[in-house]
Design brief:
11-stranded mixed sheet; 14 strands; globular
């Protein structure tokens, strides 16, 4: 028998068997040791995960908490978000974006297999701060008629869904007949060879143009309209109400200006082309926003929007909010989402307007 010099019990055990069985017993012993080591690793892994649990993906986190944290802007964007309304059910917010939030929450309830619904909770903040809160992880997503197609609207770290409203655009409204006549006179020079950007640059030159801070109209004006007096407002209502400086033209989304000029601010009217068709400065799709890292939630949202589009549900939602005649208060009572009392003062504070840096006062 071949002797083996070793101080370990395993080696001595192997030395006691004959050459024919040595390999067999070696394999069995080493296999047993490997299993013991793996069990030890498992115990160690369990201990580590008890102290530092593995982070959940975003969909599992929403399911576990039973709430969907949704950001909306303080500033109302009728018909996407109406001002908060006092109803018999409490303070409620309604609009196309709010109905979309309900669709997302209902789909999450089904996905999570919950017996109780996933509750959408609204976090109301100034529009530019929505992007900050999303990057800080305070929100799961946000909606507020947010553009996903205008250059400069996609900050790093955020992701924009497939559009829930396609082929919207930027439009302009005016209230002074003399300004309207001046614009149409300038537009008439471009009838033979219409170029919207060239016509707008010429017609708006020297005028005071109001935009909302951080919105796509603000970015458009900064990039394309150098010969204007730019006024930056905290909200669209602030632009309507300000008198210092006097506003000649307000730029905002076409769907919004169409709604408010017909139903809210009748003294203002949309700027049109010489043939009477609506003037669109550029196309502007609307999307849901979430974190760039939330891949599972991104696919969930895109798949849901695709299904809503395929079924005709999105078209129905767009029609009932943009085209139909209705009482917003009634809809807020029957289908609005609750808003905390502490958020109401900010919601009704529409802010101010100020001349953009470098702009000259009249």
């Amino acid at each position: 028998m071949h002797s083996m010099q070793s101080s370990t019990p395993i080696a001595r055990t192997i030395g006691w068997v004959d050459g024919k069985t040595r390999g067999h017993w070696q394999r069995r012993i080493f296999l047993g040791l490997a299993l013991l080591l793996l069990q030890g690793c498992g115990l160690l892994y369990d201990a580590v995960t008890m102290v530092h649990p593995l982070s959940q993906d975003e969909l599992s986190a929403i399911c576990a908490r039973g709430r969907l944290r949704v950001g909306i802007s303080v500033e109302p964007f009728r018909p996407f978000i109406f001002p908060a309304m006092y109803t018999d059910e409490g303070i409620r917010v309604t609009g196309l974006d709010v109905e979309l939030i309900r669709e997302v929450a209902n789909a999450l309830t089904v996905h999570c297999g919950k017996q109780t619904p996933i509750v959408p909770t609204l976090h109301v903040t100034r529009f530019p701060d929505l992007f900050i809160k999303m990057n800080e992880g305070q929100l799961d997503l946000f909606v507020s008629s947010v553009s996903g197609t205008v250059p400069g609207t996609k900050p790093a770290g955020l992701w924009f869904s497939a559009p829930y409203l396609r082929d919207d655009g930027l439009a302009a409204i005016i209230h002074n007949p003399k300004i309207a006549e001046r614009i149409q006179t300038q537009f008439a020079q471009h009838i033979r060879k219409w170029d919207t950007l060239a016509a707008v640059r010429q017609a708006f030159a020297g005028l005071t143009i109001a935009v909302q801070k951080g919105r796509s109209a603000h970015l458009y004006a900064q990039a394309n309209l150098s010969r204007i007096r730019l006024v930056v407002c905290d909200s669209l209502p602030a632009a309507i109400e300000t008198s210092d400086p006097t506003i000649d033209v307000i730029l905002s989304k076409h769907s919004i200006v169409e709604y408010v000029t017909k139903r809210v601010w009748h003294e203002w009217s949309p700027v049109t082309k010489p043939d009477g068709s609506p003037l669109l400065l550029t196309r502007d799709d609307l999307s849901i926003v979430t974190s760039e890292e939330h891949r599972r939630l991104q696919w969930f949202l895109n798949n849901l929007l695709f299904r809503l589009e395929e079924s005709g549900r999105l078209a129905q939602m767009r029609h009932r909010w943009i085209d139909e005649d209705y009482a917003p208060t009634r809809r807020a009572t029957t289908e609005g989402l609750p808003l905390e009392v502490t958020q109401v003062p900010d919601h009704y504070d529409q802010g101010q307007c100020r001349l953009a840096e470098g702009a000259d006062a009249r």
